[in-house]
Design brief:
Layout: E1 13-14, H1 19-24, E2 29-30, E3 34-39, H2 45-58, E4 63-67, H3 72-81, H4 87-91, E5 95-99, H5 102-105, H6 109-118, E6 125-129, H7 132-137, H8 141-156, E7 160-165, H9 172-181, E8 184-193, E9 196-206, E10 216-222, E11 226-230
Parallel strand pairs: 3-7, 3-8, 4-5, 4-6, 6-7
Antiparallel strand pairs: 1-2, 8-9, 9-10, 10-11
The protein binds adenosine-5'-diphosphate and magnesium ion.
The site of magnesium ion (MG) has 5 residues, from helix 2.
């Protein structure tokens, strides 16, 4: 069996290599977590997962991405546009990208996806961006929940899994159980902050890093730079 890059004596975390961002997440997400990245369209789900992918590659982890939003080529240029250069990692096979057409798979989508993920078990990190259309096409809630149950089984083997989800695409009575199954829950929003609208990342939960729960950080996505943490007044009720 191939060894995961997780066998050092240090506390093993998944890092975005963005110091401010990591500190808000209690220093990073513990290896082996099932992570839910939830937010509406344009809230930063893809950018945040790309930042974490890049950070993980820098730290020597092997990463596989299942994407419904990009081809390999468009992903490379999207990441380049925010100063995340991943070309070498792709060429070295440290980073694998699988474009997927969840819509075409119909109700089989959650099952097909988890089967494909099981083939990536030698990876340290598996990212699904985005799972939303799999939910839209699933016939029953059970199909969706089984996906997360199976994902948890992979996590128990030491694999870290990130799943992005557009919350509006999910029935209220389904999102609750999904959230509670995940070890970490990152919630992205656009919020009014005084006179302006800012993007925020709320660390709703990181199991194993109790102190950060509830932390809210404001950020903007700057061309040629990426996610930049910005101060927010946080005058919220
Ligand atoms: N290279 C870039 N330059 C400027 N803004 C960008 C760049 N890439 C993404 N963004 C912006 O970052 C925000 C978050 O985008 P994205 O992560 O794709 O959202 P989501 O995946 O949640 O739909 C959007 O407002 C998008 O326009
Ligand atoms: Mg996206």
């Amino acid at each position: 069996m191939e060894e995961h890059a997780t066998q050092s004596t240090e506390r093993q975390v998944i890092s975005s290599c963005n110091t401010e961002l990591d500190s808000k997440m209690g220093g990073g997400i513990p290896v082996g977590s099932l992570v839910l990245i939830e937010g509406s369209s344009g809230s930063g789900k893809s950018v945040l997962s790309q930042q974490i992918i890049w950070g993980s590659l820098q730290n020597g982890f092997g990463v596989s991405l299942f994407t419904s939003e990009n081809s390999v080529k468009s992903l490379v240029s999207q990441m380049q546009s925010i100063d995340l250069d991943i070309l070498d990692f792709l060429l070295l096979g440290k980073f694998k990208v699988y474009p997927m057409e969840l819509a075409r798979l119909g109700e089989q989508a959650p099952f097909a996806l988890i089967q494909a993920m099981k083939k990536e078990q030698q990876r340290d990190i598996i990212v699904v961006d985005t799972f939303t259309s799999a939910i839209a096409h699933a016939r029953t809630d059970l199909q969706v929940l089984s996906f997360f149950e199976e994902a948890k089984r992979l996590c128990a083997k030491g694999i870290t899994i990130l799943v992005t989800l557009h919350s509006q695409g999910v029935a209220p009575d389904l999102i609750g159980p999904i959230r509670s199954m995940c070890d970490a829950h990152l919630l992205l929003r656009s919020e009014q902050d005084g006179q302006r609208i800012v993007k925020t990342l709320q660390v709703a939960k990181v199991r194993g890093a109790a102190s950060v729960t509830g932390a809210v950080v404001g950020f903007e996505v700057e061309p040629g730079w990426g996610m930049r943490v910005i101060p927010i007044s946080k005058a919220r009720g």
